[in-house]
Amino acid sequence: MRQLSLDVEVTRGDTVESRHRVHAAVVEGEKLVAGARDPHLVTAWRSCAKPFQVMPLLHAGGFDSLGWGDAELALACASHGAEPEHLAIAERMLSSIGLEEGDLACGPHEPLSVRGARLWREGGQPLTRLHNNCSGKHAAMLARAVTMGWPTHGYQRIDHAVQRACVGEVSCWSGVALDDMGVAVDGCSAAVMILPLDRMALAYARLGAAIAAGEEVPSRIAGALRAHPHLLGGTDRFDTVVLQETQGRVITKVGAEGVHSVMVPDRRIGFTVKVEDGAVRAQHAAVVALLRTLDVLLDLPPRLADYLRKPVKNTRGEVVGEIRGAFSPT
Predict the structure, then answer these.
(1) Hey, which of 241, 250, 262, 277 would disulfide with 246, CB 3.0 to 4.6 Å?
(2) What does the alpha-carbon distance between residue 319 and residue 118 come to, in Å, rounded to a whole number?
(3) pTM value surpassing 0.90
């Protein structure tokens, strides 16, 4: 296995002010081919699991029975920025199953995108559960309950059939047995799976290979994200930028606390990075650095180069340091 160094440091002037330790696992085909620090580190997968969590709704036919399309599918996989487009689709999803914003189990939080936050402040409207970055995922989970005739109340609880199906899907793709799968409560109140980084990477490698092979459900998910990159994250958000700048060749999915999963379908590559201290500023730099190391980004687009070596500015807008790869021994 190839040993990598993906640590990220933050400078102020010529001094290293902070350093972030980054773990990673890279799977090609079915084989662990590279890693940084501990590629078997066990952690919560957070929102990186969303493409798998929507699969039971697709497999059972509930998605199509509702007449949903690519926009709804993309939002179900998204950690969106609560921009008007995101809110409208989430509200439409709920309306189509006879439910409303109050039926979502996720709590409200401020929009994650700069544009979403600005429009919310200027609009003077209260935050709602639709603003939660996971509202699309939750709307799809409610749809799963409705179309299966299950209770919608408590759909987010770990012992509900909706969540058990999601955990089972992750078990199938990651190869982690249900008895060995850790399950806890995510920030949005739904179940979150806990498993090793190399198994997260394996799941994404398998998903990428299934997309490349033209398998129906994986291909539908990839097609929806490629058709609607803005819905996956939002204006100037990392996952959207990657989709746009690689023309859909690379699909990334952010998770909270510094976890990020990536697939390159035409290479059958999947990888996951985990910033040990959970810093978002480090996970983006690490993902771009790893894509460069794997020769996926031979020509680095300027918008992605900005993540690899990002200026640190003070309150006057002056550049006082930078975020960059540390290249320290692992």
Answers:
(1) 250
(2) 24
(3) yes
